[in-house]
Amino acid sequence: MEKEIFQCRRCGHCCHGETTVSLTPEDLARMVAHFKMSEEEVIQKYLRVTGKVIQMQIENGHCIFYNDGCTIHPARPWRCRQWPLHPSILTDQANFSAIKDSCPGIRLSDYGRFQRKLAELIERHKKQAGS
Ligand code: SF4
Ligand code: SF4
Fold this sequence. Notes:
This protein is mainly alpha-helical and 131 residues long. Helices cover 44% and strands 9% of the residues. The chain has a two-stranded antiparallel ribbon with strand order 1-2. A two-stranded antiparallel ribbon has the order 3-4.
């Protein structure tokens, strides 16, 4: 069903820019396990810490892990996994428009239809998680 509303075109747009998503403690732990390094080494090599916010370093205008696709795909942060199907789209049409304009993988431009399909998808994921 997801493919009815979204299919990644691997354009890399969401991995470009001067900031990235921020990491949760679980994201950091996943990266540490992925690289088999200490947390300090992973932070020093790949991340940047601003107060309590941890993000990926930016290199040449994109996330340090971007190289014609995500090079840490199995260990990428949950916000990267969720993008662009963010639940806020369900209640915020302006957000849907902004996301649609920046992500060519969105396949339905009609907000009402997109909303219904995404709501069904989220409900299905919840049921699967609970079963
Ligand atoms: S912007 Fe959309 S289509 Fe492009 S790489 Fe990101 S998720 Fe995929
Ligand atoms: S971790 Fe991967 S998916 Fe997330 S911004 Fe970096 S390159 Fe893109």
